[in-house]
Amino acid sequence: MTKVQESAKAILKLLPGVDCGGFGGCGYPTCQACAEAIAEGGSVALCPACSGEVVKAIAEIMGVEPVEVEEKIAFVRCAGTAACSERYSACESCDAAKAMGHAEGECKYGCLGLGTCIERCKFDAMKLEEGQLVIDREKCSGCEACLTGCIQNIIEMIPRDATNFIPCSSKEDENTTMATCGYGCIGCGDCALACPKGAIEMVMGDTVAGRYAHIDYSKCEGCVTCTVKCRKKIIVDTLHDLTEAKEEVALVRCVGGALGSRKLKKMGLESCAQANDIDLDGNDICAYSCAGLGDCVKVCRYDAISNDMGVAKVDPDKCVGCGDCMRACPRDKIIMVPYKGVKQTACTSKADPERRMEVCGVGCIGCGDCADNCPSGAITMVDGSPFIDHEKCVNCGVCTYVCSRGLISERVVPEYNYLQREAMQLDKAEERKW
Fold it and tell me: I need a surface site. Which of 5, 78, 305, 325 has the fewest CB within 10 A?
């Protein structure tokens, strides 16, 4: 046996031995062929499925200096199932599905959900869950075989120790992405602008308005800035709690929709959008209230909003500030407010006080006592309802005290934690102000 053959035999024992069929990153159909290529002078890191320790062992066999390798795993740049369709159920592969084309409302950049890439994986690291491709980080060897199996080109190799991920490849404009997938990147660019290391780039799409964010892992340090700044809150961060790392949370501008909601349900309405098309005032329903039929609840990905006695209620601890509920509300009853202990007013009725009492009974009567007594001028009356300027509010508590209806409440949240201080670059002096 020649020295090359002896080396190949020893190297083969260190390789995965699963034979990727030529689809892996080494380019050879079998581990035997890969081992022989290395023994004949190929790179000791030729097999991408080998860990740093294995590469070091191969280098010792070959009598060469070890090389540094960055262990990588596969990552699917898609978090939704908008590209999947019942139309594809008869297709045998993702290639066949793509050949059918995409119908209106389907994302043409997302995972097709038929698992052609799974057939390439020899490590049982990939599976489909309700049409969405899921990769087991622990099982993935980083062999790269799945890359050539994805006709959508949405699988990429990322560092095994990466902590931040952007699971979207849509190159559509914001409106199209919003219409096709609740998990999609809308290309706003806030993450790229905020990244202190310039690790996020905006990849241009097929149109002037279409683009998506992509992380350059050679620059990323795994901080929380992009997670906080992401408007859609789709950037996955495995180190930090997304419910804490946020600037804003949703607020429903209604305190009592029970009476109206019951009437709407008796009328057979099933959505807030339907309620928005009828004459509410003519049916003795507050024309400014939450319809309470749950359009916002259906779109919340974080179980942060619920329907409580005919009015939507937001749990600020669960809310991450993505704004999906705000966009889903056809009546504009949801706004985003700062995630800190400031005063909030929920009623926006413009009706006269008597009418407010008739159709609601628990809302603001527009007396203006809160605005008249605010020492910092943070409250103004707009169409008979108080509006609080959070930049001026100093949380003195006067408005809460003088409100005869008890409708002005203070959102009490924990002090800024280290995540927010780091992400928002708040210094110690500014922190003490809170």
Answer: 5
